[in-house]
Design a protein that fits this description.
single chain; about 80 residues; mainly alpha; about 75% helix
Length: about 80
């Protein structure tokens, strides 16, 4: 993981539901692998967004959504 990925990983995992942390880790690992391979694009991001949101604590959804939208704006 690069430093930006590590920072987002920590941010995301802290906000994941306790019973969904393993699923969250798997989602992030897949996404980071796609970033490294150059296959992470806006279409993939939009397809995966519901899966990301499903593992986040309800009180953290807006905060995570804002961070992810900021990232998506750079794709």
């Amino acid at each position: 993981m690069n430093p930006g990925q590590e920072m987002f990983y920590s941010f995301f995992i802290e906000r994941a539901k306790d019973d969904k942390k393993e699923e969250a880790k798997a989602l992030l690992e897949e996404s980071f692998a796609r970033q490294d391979a150059g296959t992470f694009d806006k279409a993939y991001f939009e397809k995966m967004l519901p899966k990301y949101m499903a593992v986040i604590k309800p009180e953290a959804i807006e905060e995570v959504k804002e961070a992810m939208e900021h990232f998506a704006s750079r794709l």
